[in-house]
C-alpha cells in the first residue's frame, strides 16, 4: 500500500480503531490523524474512538477525538486501524458502512484483510504503529506523529520485551528516538504509572487469581460489582493480565471482567507452546499468538470452563483436571 495514494483526491477522511482502544490503537489513529494534517492540510479529517485512557494524554491532540457518531456523514475514505473486524469498530461503524472507500491497516493474525477496499495487514509486525511507521517517510513525520507511533510500539511489545519485537520494530523505535520522542516520560506515564485505585484493583485481581492445570495456567475474574466498588472502568484494568502471565511456571493467563450482565471481556496471554489467538478465534475474537481476546456470555465458571477446554487441546491436559470445572453449563460466544 502507498499511503499517499489512499489520500489522493480525498476531501473528507475518517479514522477509527477498535472498541476499548489500547495504546497501539490510540497511537496509530493519532499518528495517521497528524500525518494527514501535516501532509494533506486540505483534507477534512475526523477521528472516532471510544473513551481514551488518561495515560495517553502525552499524545498531542487527543482532545480532538470524537466519542460519538452524532451527525450523519459520508466520508471519501474511512481508515480502520488496529482492528481486524468491522464488528469491533463500535459506534463508528455507521461511517464505515457509508464511506466511499475503506482502508484497513493492521497486524492481527486473525485479520484476513478482505473486508475493506484496500488493506495492509502485517501479522509479523509487532504493532499497527510499526506498520504505519513503514508506510510513512521520515520527512513526512513530525514530533506529534513520532510520539504517537512510539506509544503504539511500547504498548504492543510491553516496552520491547514481548516475542513479537523484531529488529524491524527496534529500527522503527530507533528512528523515533532519533526524532526526539521523550521515551522515558512516555513509558512511565502511559505504561508503568498507575493511580491508587488501579493498583488496588490489580491487587484484588491477583489476590483472587486461581491456578489450574498443575500450575501451568492462571485466571482471575472481576465482576461489575467489584469494578463499581473500586470505582474503576475498563481503562483501569490494563496490565492485569500481563502481571498474571509473569507468575512463575505459568504458560497461559486469562483475565476476565464483566462488561454487562453475564457478559465478559476476556484477555489472554501465553508463553511458548500455547497459541491464544486460536482459543480467542474459536469464541469469535482474535488477536495474536501470545496476546488475544474475545467477549463471552455466561457465568465466570462457564467462561473459564469453555476457555480451559480449548487450552487443554493445545497442552495435552485432560479438561476435567482443572479445579475450576465447577459447573457444566455451556456458554455462547459473542
Ligand atoms: P487485550 O487482551 O484486550 O489486550 O487484547 C490482546 C490482543 O487481542 C489485542 O491485539 C487485541 O486487539 C486482540 N483482541 C482483544 N479482544 C479481541 C476481540 N474481541 N476480537 C478480536 N481481537 C481481539
Ligand atoms: Mn489493539
Ligand atoms: Mn495492536
What general form does the structure show? globular
Q: H/E order of the elements?
A: HEHEEHEEHHHHHEEHHEEHEEH
How many DSSP H or I helices?
12
Percent range of helical residues: 25-40%
Strand content: 15-25%
The total strand number stands at 11
Any low-confidence stretches, pLDDT <50, length ≥5? 325-334
Instruction: Give every kind of bound small molecule, once each.
Output: adenosine monophosphate, manganese (II) ion
**Ends distance:** 32 Å
Radius of gyration: 20 Å
Helical/strand content category: alpha/beta
**Main beta-sheet strand count, sense and barrel state:** 6 strands, mixed
Q: Round the mean pLDDT to the nearest integer and report it.
A: 94
**Spatial ordering of strands, largest sheet:** 6-7-8-9-11-10
Throw out a few tags for this protein:
single chain, 334 residues, alpha/beta, six-stranded mixed β-sheet, five-stranded parallel β-sheet, 12 helices, 11 strands, 36% helix, 18% strand, disordered C terminus, binds adenosine monophosphate, binds manganese (II) ion
Describe the protein:
- The chain is α/β, with parallel strands linked by helices and 334 residues long.
- Helix content is 36%, strand content 18%.
- The strands form two sheets. The chain has a six-stranded mixed beta sheet with strand order 6-7-8-9-11-10. The protein has a five-stranded parallel beta sheet with strand order 2-1-3-4-5, covered by helices on one side.
- A hairpin with a 4-residue loop joins β6 and β7.
- α2 packs antiparallel against α5 and α4 runs antiparallel to α5.
Amino acid at each position: 500500500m502507498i499511503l499517499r495514494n489512499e489520500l489522493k483526491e480525498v476531501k473528507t477522511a475518517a479514522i477509527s480503531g477498535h472498541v476499548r482502544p489500547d495504546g497501539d490503537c490510540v497511537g496509530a489513529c493519532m499518528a495517521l490523524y497528524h500525518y494527514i494534517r501535516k501532509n494533506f492540510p486540505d483534507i477534512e479529517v475526523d477521528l472516532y474512538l471510544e473513551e481514551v485512557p488518561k495515560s495517553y494524554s502525552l499524545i498531542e491532540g487527543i482532545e480532538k477525538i470524537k466519542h460519538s457518531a452524532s451527525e450523519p456523514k459520508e466520508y471519501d475514505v474511512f481508515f480502520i486501524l488496529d482492528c481486524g473486524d468491522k464488528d469491533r469498530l463500535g459506534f463508528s461503524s455507521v461511517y464505515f458502512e457509508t464511506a466511499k472507500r475503506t482502508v484497513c491497516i493492521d497486524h492481527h493474525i486473525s485479520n484476513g484483510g478482505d473486508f475493506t477496499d484496500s488493506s495492509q495487514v502485517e501479522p509479523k509486525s509487532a504493532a499497527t504503529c510499526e506498520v504505519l511507521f513503514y508506510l510513512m517517510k521520515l520527512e513526512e513525520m513530525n514530533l506529534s506523529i513520532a510520539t504517537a507511533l512510539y506509544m503504539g510500539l511500547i504498548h504492543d511489545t510491553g516496552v520491547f520485551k514481548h516475542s513479537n519485537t523484531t529488529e524491524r520494530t527496534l529500527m522503527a523505535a530507533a528512528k523515533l528516538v532519533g526524532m526526539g520522542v521523550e521515551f522515558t516520560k512516555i513509558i512511565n506515564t502511559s505504561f508503568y504509572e498507575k493511580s491508587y485505585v488501579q493498583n488496588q484493583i490489580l491487587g484484588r485481581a491477583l489476590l483472587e487469581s486461581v491456578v489450574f492445570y498443575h500450575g501451568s495456567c492462571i485466571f482471575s475474574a472481576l465482576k461489575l460489582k467489584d469494578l463499581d466498588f473500586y470505582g474503576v472502568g475498563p481503562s483501569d484494568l490494563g496490565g492485569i493480565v500481563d502481571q498474571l502471565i509473569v507468575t512463575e511456571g505459568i504458560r497461559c493467563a486469562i483475565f476476565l471482567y464483566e462488561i454487562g450482565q453475564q457478559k465478559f471481556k476476556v484477555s489472554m496471554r501465553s508463553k511458548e507452546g500455547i497459541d491464544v489467538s486460536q482459543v480467542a478465534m474459536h469464541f469469535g475474537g482474535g488477536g495474536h499468538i501470545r496476546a488475544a481476546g474475545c467477549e463471552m456470555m455466561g457465568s465466570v465458571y462457564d467462561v473459564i470452563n469453555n476457555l480451559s477446554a480449548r487450552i487443554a487441546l493445545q497442552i495435552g491436559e485432560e479438561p476435567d483436571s482443572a479445579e475450576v470445572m465447577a459447573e457444566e453449563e455451556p456458554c455462547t460466544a459473542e
